[in-house]
Amino acid sequence: MRSCIQRFKDRFYREYLWYTALETDLLFFVVCDVLFLTQVKGMSKESFSLLTFLSLAFSLIIQYPLLRFINRVGNKTAVRTGSVVFALSAVCITFAPGFITVLIGGFLKCIGHTLNAMGTAILKNRLTTEHREDRFVSYQSDANAATSLIMMLTSLLCLPLFTLNEYLPMVACIVLSLVGIVFAFLISHDDDSAQEINLAPNLKQSAKRQRNVWNSLNILLFASFAIFCALTGTGLSYAKLNFQQYLINQDPEYIMMLLSVITTVVYLIRIVSNMAMRKAYGKVKNRVAIFVSILLAAGLVMQTLPWFSFTGDTIAFLCIGYLLMAFVRDPYITLIRHISLEDDDKARQQSMLITLNGAQKAGSLILSAVATLMLNHWDVLSVMILMTALAMVTIVLCVLIIRKYQQTS
């Protein structure tokens, strides 16, 4: 408790908490995206699916051009630009007269999300300058917990706001995005990355440093990050489908109530997981990555067990498995980013963050495509078995990452 109070005395700490909570995603829209676009904007389910696919594909294509932009302007301008673009995306989506404007808003959201990833580099560099590198995991875990808390509150407020007026949740989204711009300017006020990056003529020195990203350790990091984020991101959607498929004979209202309760609990679980992360990291450091990968595999095994006759309380297995998948996401992402930002070279940090972001998008896109093909021929159990096998692969990758990291440290 005392250490928490001491952290809150740090102005940058408080500003970074707010920045991360407001700029990680478009609040309110992330809750009501399907409902708003289909019922309010009149978009068909096919159009919504196309929007999701095109946005994900665009996000992959735009990664390298955005990296070049970030190299030229530095973290400060990147974060500030990202927060403004985020707000513009909310405006486009809210007041879009048709599909094209919504698609533009989705593209802007992808750009803003990538640029805002540089906030992590600003945190790392700030702590390094103040010789407090050991606090990165604590700061980022607290920021993740704050994000989960804000998202839980917006989830609870979304329905009553939508009931009053179908546009109110999106108006609230725009307002919070504007507040996020303020905190983006505050956390980046003292960052000097632009000056350092621009000293490299024609980016040749920067490009040379970035080529060093592709060593054996980082390749393992990218592969593990792609698989893990796909399983705990897109994979959660298939876990919901697994719920619905297994409980298909149950009353639909019961299934909806169950999923609603679990979704709310997920945010509480993520708060707890980030608090636990600080304690675990203090004891075993980066080896926490191995433990969270084991928990992910356990969660997916529990998602598949109810399909076999020897299990007992099937609902409990499904719920615990789903919550375990949500529990491990934030700690893992924090750890991988911590390892990837060990190098003080800012150009290389930017390359690592952009490449990790690209790996995350690629993993989700591939998992979604493969799962769609599998569901055309088999039931959802086949997808859950595939995801369980991939979770086993992440355990091996995490063991290799920790060994490689210890050898290079």
Automatic annotation (TrEMBL):
The chain crosses the membrane at residues 16-36, 48-66, 86-108, 168-187, 213-234, 254-276, 288-308, 314-332, 353-375, 381-402. SUPFAM superfamilies: MFS general substrate transporter (SSF103473). Keywords: Membrane, Transmembrane, Transmembrane helix. Gene3D superfamilies: MFS general substrate transporter like domains (1.20.1250.20). It comes from the Bacteria. Pfam families: MFS_1. This is Permease of the major facilitator superfamily. It comes from Bifidobacterium panos. The lineage of its organism: Bacteria, Bacillati, Actinomycetota, Actinomycetes, Bifidobacteriales.
